Fold these 4 entries.
Entry 1:
Amino acid sequence: MTGVRSSTVDGVVTRSARRTPERTALRYADRAWTYRGLDEAVGTAAAVLMDGHGLRPGDRVASYAHNSDAYLIAYLACARAGLVHVPVNQNLTGEDLAYILSQSGSSLVLTDPDLAGRVPPGYAVRPLRDATGSLLAELDTPRPFTSAHEPAADDLVQLLYTSGTTALPKGAMMTHGALVHEYVSAVTALDLRAGDRPVHALPLYHSAQMHVFLLPYLAVGAENTVLDAPDAGRIFDLVESGQADSLFAPPTVWIGLANHPDFAVRDLGGLRKAYYGASIMPVPVLERLRARLPDLAFYNCFGQSEIGPLATVLGPDEHEGRMDSCGRPVLFVEAKVVDENGEDVPDGTAGEVVYRSPQLCSGYWDKPQESAEAFRDGWFHSGDLAVRDAEGYFTVVDRVKDVINSGGVLVASRQVEDALYTHPAVAEAAVVGLPDERWIEAVTAVVVLRGDATEAELIDHAREKLAHFKAPKRVVFVDGLPRNASGKILKRELRDRFA
């Protein structure tokens, strides 16, 4: 009875395979998979994992690898076998990598040959591809998969580790049911259609690319292209050739595309849907993109790992007059804004965003205290500071931990960053508070230039746009900003570096 009523992550692909078995599901490099072929490969991979490594349902399997078709198949195979998939940032090394593998209790690490040497001793390792005995090579010989344990909606399917921009990462425990609810929310809020031709260029270990786009697009039966990385030239080629008409990227990547010398001259009219998220998009950058591609439909996606990760969306017909908003809650999410005591605040007042949703994680893996702190008063506390307007639109002001206390007055770093982005010489900007005897925290801008500008010039420019107490007290010029692979700027590192 349980299996009859449950909807699982791998079942999303099985249903598409039964509807359109011969339609192309996925392209990567020189390989292409039909929906039937992809579904059969998932079953074979599940059999290989369970028969070849002595695993049992509930065991954790880490994926520490680059983007590939094998990466996706491994995730779906874990889902089918009742294993718990642990996606790991392929840029992690040393103690950071060891922490996640140890904290999750992973029994097996699926990796690529060039990364295998980084895996700490003591872990069973299997290559995903490009090696003898790799999981991908095993798919040449189809094998049936049967299991006494059929995963149910309430079973864990993935540990999504948070970005760790302010503290050690925590493993958000995601069930099949939570992610399937999130896939439906993504399909409806983002207008995902079987006729779309999305390109997936961000790391698949990251929840946004995998769970907001790739899996929901597989659910509707679209033709998907996976790239190794967001290479501007490759993306432009796919758009011009008609193989891509939909792209998700964080603001840092969109900034890079907009600043690319070919952006102004390539024929990008075939790009119909542009999705951005993972961090705050500077309004001036969005305005430049819309001016260059006026027919392109922009969607702002906002959320966090703990909610699958999509929580709110600002659609293309909602941008006018609210370019800085992240939209309204998606289908299965209820959200409100509260003060430090958990009380609702009036519309137009800044406070913390809290959620109720079947998309939410079940807590943090092996962290009962942090779980209790996040889930209190019947709501999940996001740590995001936002304002809700009378029409239900949310505007993120900052992370609660990133708000700057300057002279006893709270300053939102985003507002200062938006002011700096209006200067033509500013390519990127991040604003942090640094310890100061007079101001408690001094508003400090860390800036990457694309033209000529002095510290005094940028401070004066900000003062023209902002109240003087919000303008930077100091500007530091750098060649690049530290960020994780999902595009989030690591302000913790900036505070540590320049304190």
Note: The chain is about 30% helix and 25% strand.
Entry 2:
Amino acid sequence: MGNIVNNLVENYIRETLKEKDGLLKELEIYADKNNVPIIHKEVSELLRVILKIKRPKRILEVGCAIGYSSIFFASCLDDIEIITIERNQDMIKKAKENIKKAGFNNITIIENDAVDALKDIHGEFDMIFLDAAKGQYKLFYDMVIDNLKTGGLLVSDNILYKGMVAHDDFVVKRKKTIVKRMRDYLDYISNCDYLDTSLIPIGDGVALSYKKEV
């Protein structure tokens, strides 16, 4: 549990939402046992609704891990291309196994550090999902925002960082730099002239940003 909402409320939401099945459920169990960060249940269901409404054709994900969110996105829509970035070789190996098991051929893993990988990203995306190093979100943003189509959606996960971003009482000393950078990032996207941004206190916090005409 985090410091985002009352634990009773969080438990109720997670118990009420429909359980995943098949491979996604297997990956949730694996992630829990192996301490692998994946999107929270309530966040995934919010994104499912958004994907159904928005119906993006091309998604860029920064932070693949074991491939859970990429597989989830691909399971929500038939006609979609997903490009995801991961540098950890153990995660990459597991992600490839999981994607193959899922039977998807529309997910491409770029095996590199995110900063280096993003230098070579080309084309436009309907949706960009940030879920990598939390202290680097502004840097990632600067590198990808021009690749996000007007009318596209930027999703930033874990933006409240166990509540530490919201209040100093929750801050762990060794995380101060990450917290400061995340606060700066949230202040920027919340006040950017060409973004409409909503900060949502579910999961570990998620920001939804709609890109307007510049």
Note: The beta strands are 58-62, 81-86, 107-111, 125-130, 148-157, 195-200, 206-211.
Entry 3:
Amino acid sequence: MILICDVGNTSINFGLCDDDKIVRTFCLKTLADRSSDEYIVLFKSLIESDKFSDVLISSVVPVVTSLLIKMFDKYYNIKAKVLGPGIKTGIMIKADNPREVGADLICDIAGSSKYGKDVLIIDLGTATKYMYQHNNTFMGTAIAPGVSVSMKALTASAALLPSFELQTPKTVLCNNTISCMQSGVIYGAACEVDGMIDRIKQEIKCDNLKIVATGGLSSLIIPLCKHEIILDKDLVLEGLLQIYRKNIK
């Protein structure tokens, strides 16, 4: 068994893998002020008695990467690998500065290859990312504030607006403050996704484009969209597992 770890700004997603299959997933909240000793307490409460012999980490939070490396070294005697220079991905990157392309985006591209040669990936996490891949080549992306970021910005910037949970109201036009805010943020995000898909399809002129969504908020937003979109909650982990297999000696 191997362990793959996707460290995002909001959460750390883990996948236990047996050969080419993810057999179990679990998640921890990303908190950079914890020590490796604090992380192991939470980690062991989730992984219980499962055994693994190797670790590959994809991360956009360097300080948490360091904590996890120390944790696996100290408590499991495993030298965790980190997605970066020296790791083969099988992905070509078309970018002004390829080093600026985040590890999570590379994993999204790798995981999307099963859907065909032309795929638009929509990752609804802390940021909302729209990535286009053609023949396993990263062709470009657009990045917008995520749904939770927009919600927090709204309540932080307007003194009279209260905090609220991300729940979908039954109607777009509502009659109380909380529902009105929920509608604006959630239906507004769905409209953004639909609008960005239209613009991207117009720009790339691809008739056979598959559209795949992932990320923590995808199951909330995508059902409200008008386009046909495939939900794949484990896309990043699947891509990370593919990358791991390419690096086994």
Note: The mean pLDDT is 93.
Entry 4:
Amino acid sequence: MVRRARSDLFTAASIHLRHLGDETYVISEDYSFKTETYYRIVSLEVEGKTPVPSSRDTLEAYVVPVCLARAEQAGIPVLPWEISDRQVPLPAILYGVHYFADPSEYSVVRDTETAARVVRFITNAGKYPFCYQPIDGETEIFPVTAIFGKTAGAPDGVGDLCAGIYRVFRLPLVNCIFAQTGDRFALSALTPVRYSSLSREERGILTRVLEEECHG
């Protein structure tokens, strides 16, 4: 049975702290650089505490090339990627990598006209480079929400990948963007999660964490 989630736990942009041993778990919708959550994590580090995630984890998780390099090093299958300022082999997934880039705003492009329009937007008319990931024409892209590495209703095999991703980046709440080609899955990016997008089962998982204890 799925427990009914308390609505007051999921106020937009709310930050929850849970302590377990010497670690302080920071649960939030968004861990992006210069958000309130990021500064809360930095403050905990300055105080000599051990926040989960760390400021390093948050900085690296949402920069797609850095995220994929770190995940691959840990043995997690990832999509191949390149940095460019103009070339885009099609089809491909495109991500901005400049200061204000949000990995949630990725684009799957399959024709040159769409690719040119997206590249112009994510590079601010050529001022910044971008990241592209070549994909197969049959590749499907989909997000999976991971809560402390746990998932609700994820395809077989993806749950284990999300658990591995959590061990690497320690993000309590994150969207894992996956690419599926046949029976193979690969990580494309990590992105923020909105409480409002959580399913009833996902809210139940998070509610148990917030109301009882934080499991590392």
Note: The radius of gyration is 18 Å.
